[in-house]
Design a protein that fits this description.
With 476 residues, the chain is of the alpha/beta class. It folds into three domains: 207 residues, DHBP synthase (Alpha-Beta Complex), CATH 3.90.870; 99 residues, 3-Layer(aba) Sandwich (Rossmann fold), CATH 3.40.50; 135 residues, 3-Layer(aba) Sandwich (Rossmann fold). The strands form three sheets. Strands 1-8-2-3-7-4-6-5-9-10 form a ten-stranded mixed β-sheet, sandwiched between helices. The protein has a five-stranded parallel β-sheet with strand order 13-12-14-11-15, covered by helices on one side. It binds threonylcarbamoyladenylate and magnesium ion. The site of magnesium ion has 3 residues, from loops.
Length: 476
């Protein structure tokens, strides 16, 4: 299909409106993201939106209007608080879910008895909808699962050849989709965080539910929340850690991308592809940049994208929500807590702890024993072989392993299968993070107990552990 490119000039908007009235699809800019519009009252036209996006049709669409009077034709009941929201935030990035009128086709609402209505602030959008003379159903104009397009070139590369026309409106000013709030029940509930924040809403209608982000592992509240979302081709991770930790973590990543706040960029020494998320003090900058940056990372051809932790108030909630979804909930800590476990915590595990502390700056290592006597000193030979290698473990004191230690650790490495079995029995809930050092290093053997042996036995033990630890460097 040939896609016509339209400007925001009145005669072009008129052409676009004609396409909508003939049952076609027109992509138009809004202040949040570009929308893929069709006549909301025509079932066939709405159905064709799904074809263009390649999206399952069980997902309800937002109906866009140009004027306050247009609500009446769509909503059965408009509660007082919903009116207050309209007065305060329309036109703007807020979608209000209301009980629908029968004229709204099932295909728009995915069979729900409610309809999402929004009056965009973008002047081109409103002029276009007004010209159409009908409400315009429009999801974000991305191929399903991809980041929403927030500029013309992104929308063009996704949708050229898939729709009748695209109106070029330049860059979207908000950059994340509208806040979706359900006003159809007794209690107002935010289903999707967006440009209008929970704080702004509470300031005018009082308490609302769902103000903080919808976590990806929660059951979807808004039907559209259940699909893979906002995902570029490369895997996205939320990376937790301070600047030093992040630098160490990224050091050996060959082809990684890092989304980074401006204030932190000067401190990134790792050779990764860095793209700015704006100022750490300005969520509106991150919101505006996020989707475009995810797409840019794909163009740079990175294998993995790391993104920073995001705050949990105001507009950050919306940015955080989109990033967590793009990451599919994958969070990595630059620094990992490793607990090493042997029997008495006087020979093998203190040696392993010493070796790890010296060689693995990104591991926060501690050790304990499954039948240790609290406060026991480390065996003399263990202290001696470590001292030879420049590792001081003299002041280590034995600790008996407990639940808290295991719970806090990211990985628990035991010296033998029997230690692993003991811990697995004591703390079955943490089983999946307990390994033998042998397993973890791929050697699949136990580290035998040097206890009571001579210095050569300890030396061999040291070498054995050191070799295994080396093989674990990149795995944790
Ligand atoms: O900013 C936006 O909202 C953009 C622009 C184009 O307006 N549109 C947008 O549409 O993001 P879409 O289809 O990508 O997301 C619509 C969201 C989905 O999460 C959907 O499940 C929810 O709104 N939604 C729509 N109608 C609903 C309803 N009746 N009940 C519950 N959720 C609804
Ligand atoms: Mg969308």
């Amino acid at each position: 299909m040939e896609t016509r490119l339209l400007t925001s000039a009145p005669e072009d908007l008129k052409l676009g409106a004609e396409i909508i009235n003939r049952g076609g699809r027109v992509i138009f800019p809004t202040e949040t993201v570009y929308g893929l519009g069709a006549n909301a009252l025509e079932e066939k036209a709405v159905r064709s939106i799904y074809d263009a996006k390649g999206r399952p049709s069980d997902n309800p669409l937002i109906v866009h209007i140009a004027d306050f009077e247009d609500v009446e034709a769509l909503a059965e009941i408009v509660p007082e608080k919903a009116k207050v929201l309209m007065e305060n935030f329309w036109p703007g990035p807020l979608t209000i879910i209301l009980k629908r009128k029968p004229c709204v086709p099932d295909v728009v609402t995915a069979g729900l008895d409610t309809v999402g209505i929004r009056m965009p602030e973008n002047e081109i959008a409103r002029a276009f909808i007004r010209e159409c003379g009908v409400p315009v159903a429009a999801p974000s104009a991305n191929v399903s699962g991809r980041p929403s397009p927030t500029n013309f070139s992104d929308v063009f590369s996704d949708m050229e050849g898939r729709v009748e026309a695209i109106i070029d409106g330049g860059d979207c000013s908000v950059g994340v989709e509208s806040t979706v709030i359900d006003m159809s029940g007794d209690i107002p509930r935010i289903l999707r965080p967006g440009g209008v924040t929970a704080e702004m809403i509470e300031a005018v209608i009082g308490e609302v539910q769902g103000g903080t982000e919808v976590r990806p592992d929660e059951a979807p509240k808004s039907p559209g929340m259940k699909y893979r979302h906002y995902a570029p081709k490369a895997q996205v991770y939320i990376l937790k850690g301070d600047v030093d930790e992040v630098n160490l973590f990224l050091k050996n990543r060959k082809n990684a991308g890092l989304l980074c706040f401006d204030e932190h960029i000067p401190y990134i020494k790792a050779e990764v592809k860095i793209l700015s998320l704006g100022s750490v003090k300005k969520p509106e900058e991150s919101a505006k940049l996020l989707f475009a940056r995810l797409r840019e990372m794909d163009r740079l051809g990175v294998d993995e994208i790391f993104a920073p932790e995001i705050g949990e108030t105001g507009l950050w909630v919306a940015v955080r929500n989109r990033l967590y979804k793009a990451a599919g909930g994958r969070i990595v800590k630059a620094k990992k807590k490793v607990l090493v476990v042997c029997t008495g915590n006087t020979c093998r595990s203190p040696i392993a702890e010493g070796i790890m502390k010296k060689n693995c700056p990104l591991w926060e290592v501690s050790s304990a024993g499954v039948s240790a006597f609290e406060g026991d000193s480390v065996s003399e030979n263990a202290v001696a072989v470590c001292a030879d290698m420049g590792i001081d473990i003299e002041n280590h004191r034995a600790r008996l392993v407990d639940r808290e230690m295991v719970e806090e650790a990211d990985v628990v490495l035991t010296m033998t299968l029997s230690h692993k079995a003991v811990l697995g029995n004591l703390y079955p809930e943490f089983k999946e993070k307990i390994f033998t050092l042998g397993e973890y290093s791929g050697e699949n053997k136990d580290v035998s107990d040097p206890f009571g042996g001579d210095i050569d036995i300890y030396k061999n033990c040291f070498i054995e552990i050191e070799e295994m630890v080396k093989k674990c460097y990149d795995k944790i």
